[in-house]
Amino acid sequence: MTSSARPISLDDAVDRLGLGPFQWRLLAICGLTWAADAMEVLLMGFALPGISAAFGLERGSADATLLLTATFAGMFVGALFWGWLADRIGRRAVFLTTVALGVVFGLAGAFAPSVAWLLVARFLTGFAIGGTLPVDYAMMAEFVPTPWRGRFLVYLESFWAVGTVMVAGLAWYLSTVFEPAEAWRWLLGLAALPGLIGLVARLGIPDSPRSLLVRGEERAARAALERVARANGTALPDAPLQVPPPAPRVTPAALFAGALRRRTVLLALVWFGLSLGYYGIFTWLPSYLRAGGLDLGAVYRTTLLLALAQVPGYLLSAYLVERVGRRGTLAGFLGVSAVAAFLFLLAGTPGTVLGTSALLSAALLGAWGALYAYTPELFPTPLRTTGMGFVSGMARLASLLSPSLGALLLTGQLAVALGLFAACFALAAVCAWLIGVETRGRQLSEAAMPENAA
């Protein structure tokens, strides 16, 4: 490297390396873990009938609600802790640790001898996988060139649908092989295995060069970029990297300083409202369908169809975030979700119930895709995973409340529950629009500058 060469920014370096095998491999690896996380988050809704049969729990009992809540409680704590830690020590260490712990605690739940032990195992599983969200999306955002970044972040979120299909299909199959009181243990054990595969695959991924550079490790940052260049068959420019000013000590309080305060609060409200409605509906949906008279096989088949309905929502979101922009796509999908929840309430036949719930499923996952593309771009590098951890923590806080509110679906108060969830989606749409910042086509160093906030 010639000392006289003009330094280039990290954003320019990543853009010049282009899109290639490295990014696609990273997407597959992070996507596999994200699908595994989706299975862990949603499987208690599928396992609850069998757990209730095994331990004699009554429908809608406090223990049943706690079992649905335990994973989200762990994710709330984990998102705040792991997101902060990843900004302090680097992405890769947390990238590996959280997946390993998720596998261990997930398997432990399958062998739980009592409800109390199962609650602890599910809390610890949630604590572990709560860290994959802020870290995975920061890693993906920091390795993908600007023109493709939003689309790739939606692609990563679309693996949630893969995990949903996998857990629904696995639950359906196990219900045909085992009695419910035995099938749930197989479900919890098998759902933990994809995370093990993801852990092995992650060993070959370097730390984020952006995170390394901010922490003053210029040589390691350049080595990481060289690995990207070799994988993509391109060359890293023969110029030094621009070293940013030393990063201040990262504390969550920095999220509420200056212009970052507005976007942090509005983003937190979007994550809270979307999560409250999504999990309030879909956590209890299998039990709601079961209470309506469907056998377990029919419940799982219906849930599988609704999971497949998420795919068009993701594909449309991936197109719109680059065509229309992040903010408009997010607000639009949230608005459609509010309308779809209201239509679901009015549905009076099995066909219209399935149709409106499929529309709701597609719209909600389109909103999630846009939100995951938008959020990491709104925080500067020293605070990216801290910010992701905080707003996703607000989503987990909503998830703690959603099982209790979703239980209204089982007690005949459908109008109250769906009306509340529709209002949450509508409020989230307004908050998304009020953020006032569009990050489409902008490099991360520019997109995350607080001075650009409206």
TrEMBL record:
UniProt main location, coarse: membrane
Segments crossing the lipid bilayer: 26-46, 66-86, 93-111, 117-140, 152-174, 186-205, 265-286, 298-321, 328-347, 353-374, 386-408, 414-435
Molecular function per GO: transmembrane transporter activity
Record's keyword terms, sorted: Membrane, Transmembrane, Transmembrane helix, Transport
Keyword Transmembrane helix among UniProt keywords: yes
Keyword Transmembrane helix applies: yes
Compartments (UniProt record): Membrane
Membrane-related topology note: Multi-pass membrane protein
A GO CC annotation given for this chain: membrane
Domain Major facilitator superfamily (MFS) profile: start-end pairs: 26-440
Superkingdom classification of source: Bacteria
Name the record gives this protein: MFS transporter
Organism whose genome encodes this protein: Deinococcus terrestris
